[in-house]
Structures are given as structure tokens and as C-alpha cells.
């Protein structure tokens, strides 16, 4: 049986910058790279397809959908505060303050292309 992943495609301006961001800061590993056109990175069951301007995924995207959207990947953490401190120490800027709700706490950051990433700690 082959390993199963949930796949998400992010259109990025710079594939290598996206690879560096996701592997250095968010614990992804490179599964395949054809930079500068495309890369495939994974973290657990999540497969993130990073498509640069020359990739077929980017070329198939309508021009009116060129900007990064409100959708985001959601990474679950055990200790949100420790992760915020680690990423802040690495120079990563956050797009929001921490927001708390009945399900837990979350904060948003953006990759180098502006795609959102949600860091989430479930309520105890």
C-alpha cells in the first residue's frame, strides 16, 4: 500500500524561497524538487505542491485568481506559544495576533508568496 497524503497546491512566486520557508521553519521535508518550476514537500499526511510561475499548475490558474487567498493550511501544535517564540526568533513575522475560541488558539503567518498558514493549538 502506498503512503496516502492530503494534497494542497499553493501558487508561489519563488519555488526555492517557498521550499526554504516550509522546510526551515515549519518542519516539511522535500519529496521532489524541480525548482524553479515546482516542488513537492510533505509534513505528516500533508503534501504541499509548490507551483512556480512556469509550472502547469500556475499556468492553469485563471488570471483573476492570481493573488494569495483566504484559504490556508492548518498545522496543529502542542505548544503554540513555544512555536511563536521559535519562529519570531527566526525572523518570521505574523499576520495576526493570537486568537482564542472554544476550540483552541490560533495565529496566522504567510509564506514568501503571501499564502496563509494557520498554527493551531487545540483547547485542553
From TrEMBL:
Gene3D superfamilies in the record: 2,3-Dihydroxybiphenyl 1,2-Dioxygenase, domain 1 (3.10.180.10)
Family matches, as PROSITE patterns: VOC (PS51819)
Top-rank taxon, per record: Bacteria
Domain VOC: 4-122
Alphabetical list of PANTHER family matching this protein: GLYOXALASE/BLEOMYCIN RESISTANCE PROTEIN/DIOXYGENASE (PTHR36437), GLYOXALASE_BLEOMYCIN RESISTANCE PROTEIN_DIOXYGENASE (PTHR36437:SF2)
Protein name: Glyoxalase
Lineage of origin: Bacteria, Bacillati, Actinomycetota, Actinomycetes, Pseudonocardiales
Amino acid at each position: 500500500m502506498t503512503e496516502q497524503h492530503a494534497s494542497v497546491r499553493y501558487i508561489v512566486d519563488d519555488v526555492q524561497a517557498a521550499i526554504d520557508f516550509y522546510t526551515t521553519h515549519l518542519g516539511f521535508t522535500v519529496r521532489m524538487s524541480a525548482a524553479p518550476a515546482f516542488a513537492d514537500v510533505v509534513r505528516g499526511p500533508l503534501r504541499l505542491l509548490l507551483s512556480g510561475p512556469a509550472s502547469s499548475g500556475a499556468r492553469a490558474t485563471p488570471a483573476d485568481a492570481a493573488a494569495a487567498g483566504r484559504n490556508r493550511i492548518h498545522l496543529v501544535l502542542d505548544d503554540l506559544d513555544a512555536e511563536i517564540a521559535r519562529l519570531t526568533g527566526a525572523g518570521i513575522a505574523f499576520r495576526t495576533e493570537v486568537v482564542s475560541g472554544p476550540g483552541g488558539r490560533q495565529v496566522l503567518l504567510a509564506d514568501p508568496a503571501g499564502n496563509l498558514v494557520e498554527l493551531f493549538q487545540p483547547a485542553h
